[in-house]
User: Fold these one by one.
Assistant:
Number 1:
Amino acid sequence: MSEAELVLRSTRVITPEGSRPATVAVAAGKITAVLPYDAPVPEGTRLEDFGDDVLLPGLVDTHVHVNDPGRTHWEGFWTATRAAAAGGITTLVDMPLNSLPPTTTVDHLRVKREVAADKAHIDVGFWGGALPDNVKDLRPLHESGVFGFKAFLSPSGVDEFPHLDQDRLARSLAEIAGFDGLLIVHAEDPHHLDAAPQRGGPRYADFLASRPRDAEDTAIAHLVAQAKRLRARVHVLHLSSSDALPLIAAAKAEGVRVTAETCPHYLTLTAEEVPDGASEFKCCPPIRESANQDLLWQALADGTIDCVVTDHSPSTADLKTDDFATAWGGISGLQLSLAAVWTEARRRGHGLEDVVRWMSARTAALVGLSHKGAIEAGRDADFAVLAPDETFTVDPAALQHRNRVTAYAGKTLYGVVRSTWLRGERIVSDGEFTEPKGRLLTRTP
Ligand SMILES: [Zn+2]
């Protein structure tokens, strides 16, 4: 251990082989060794002993809408990355829409990177966007280091980011397959949405009926068929409908290159508990019934769903009106995602090893960040220190994201993040932040 600058010790270190007492040696921002708990620490080496608090790899959240620049009053890099750090997240990948400009050309990517550079408290990467008219921009964006491309199959909610019809989807996906890129998709079918009853108003039951499961199921079926035909790599974003799970499982078994994610709100909140008019619970696709939620958990356990990401998508509070049809759709989850998922996971008999697999290892793998997502030699020294059996009650005033609207207000959650570490430096500890130390990430070719 002679070259270590820092040594972290815990009786519970989550490694790819499981949880065990260990000592983790760090030098130059990297993990150099994972050693036995009682490994001798050379004199003069800084030792941080976390006792029985758990040392886990920093989470990698591949689905975050930062909205900066252009809608920074909704969310910006400074506030989003602080909220993430406070929640144990050390890497996020920013979605291409809701900022102005959207990340749909190399020039726009440059603008985004300039804005993020000195505000990032954690590491930040970028998705590109696939629009009906930017097929020619996809390869240059790929070569500029975006991690893949997002497309909508139904209206996105903002005019500057139009959706792809089936022909345009085929064209964009063929282009992306040409350089073996990744297409990530908001999968709701617009025809099924149009055919659903659109009553509007404050009743959650009416909103749920307006975004039916078959809109998701049909869009995913189309996507899987295109991926199969083109041998392309696709990823289903924010899966909510459990009815689509057999289709995804069958496609995977057949060798179609498809992965899927779900979100903390689908896993921890249910349609039955959403009060009428409470649009802080509005997102698309919607939070569904508790029986649906049980099947999502089962799919996580059996690997049909690969990972869990926040889809943190805030707006100003005034856009969260009590009419579900017109209120902004998006749930702010960065700071609470680990605690929310862990609380429900432990109730259902899952371990923290599972949570780490879904929220760190698999998300890092999704975007090819081979130096993130695990506590093992050679990876970045990114960690969260968690008191897993300690509870807290969610107080919106304690949240770091810009507009403190939350669907979790008043909930009691397990799992207090004591500190978060980025490349061997403690970036937040008991609510105290350092200056931003995040870096901007590009896809590894
Ligand atoms: Zn999203």
Number 2:
Amino acid sequence: MVRSPNNLRLSMHEKLLSTDTTEPADGGGRPNVNARELQEVRSGNPPASKEQLRSALAEAREQTRTLLAPLNAEDLTAQHSTLMSPLVWDLAHIGWYEEYWLLRKLGASTPARGGFDEIYDAFSNPREDRPNLPLLEPAAAWRYCDDVRASVLEHLDGLDLEADNPLLGNAFVYGLVSQHELQHNETMLQTLQLRTQPYPLGTEAPATLNDEPLLLQGEAVFEGGHAEIGSDHTWSYDNERPITRITTEPYAIDLAPVTNATFESFIADAGYDTQSLWTSEGWSYITSEAISAPLGWERDSSAGRTRRRLGNLESLPAEEPVQHVSWYEADACARWLGKRLPTETEWEIAASWDPPRQQTTEYPWGDTFETDRANVGRRSLGPAAVGSLPSGASALGCHHMSGDVWEWTASDFLAYPNFEAFPYKEYSEVFFGPDHKVLRGGSWATSPAIARTSFRNWDYPIRRQLFVGFRCARTL
Ligand SMILES: [Fe+2]
């Protein structure tokens, strides 16, 4: 059932993975229980317990319910953009994916409601065609998800987690499914960003995101030499493995992502009109699509520059990282700044390599997720100002490397040496190659369980609905 990925408009979220949410969509402030659970069990030492697996699944479902709660049946069934699925497809796909991996692949009996492979397998139909499928209505989709979950929990009760099954190595397949649901939360937020109706933004961001920001200018320097990238955690995905020792030349990388203010200067300096700043593909892209600003930016004659955030019109915050730019726009702006995009190896070293200790960390500040160090998991429904969350800096001194915005890198999505596809080639392997660029670091909408420094996201260089920005680097 392998199909060509290039004509299906899939994103990585539809292959397997997923993203998350720490807080409810109302901008509350409580820590992300699921993220903590996932992070604790990822290492496999001690092995994941059934209680931790139940908790991870339950928290993912709660995040999905919270995200979709403000939406009515029409919101859920409409296709808001041909780039995205109707939200109700994502919802039932979450249930289908769970049925496939936690029931069928583990030899459990499936619920009476089912038989949806041709509708909800992401490889079966491109997104633009999904509104024409016989989709479950929202209430039926929820019932399907609930039926599957009930069967999954019943099966888990009697399951031998020590059984000789690669899917059960440290209960990997439960991490796969819980992360997948969380990742679809971010996919659904992309849909909500593309639709015109406003999604409630909640009250206010957590206090830690409102601290007076540091003035973050300048670069961190890596003097060159050996470092390590990748992960050997049992819940890491195949494309992150194995830990790989590399050697790199000296380089400098910005302490922070490029801000809206800087990008506005790029526009004011005729950045979109200066062909020499663009690759030929990028120039062709922006001219044919008539692109002259990041997605969602507008100009109001009285209010100046404004933007649409989840359907809400607001003034453009100068000091936030720019988001909703394609790889081509990021590449051109970096060139305008006299720099370039970092390779993903350079990015990961800056995010997680600790030169004095000669080891990597799972988050920029260490191996344990801490809520106040990163803007992830929908704590606020947008990036934090550059310079906030100073305790989230990496050993090399870079900020905002977990959360806020995904960051485009210069790198194509390729396998690390000694890569082994697991649990199936359609997760990563079929997407390796020059068509996809790597994004790193997670966004404000990404679960901290996924916004780890080794996590590799990928997408086409034309994509702009992602919560993505960039930072710059240069060779020394
Ligand atoms: Fe999916």
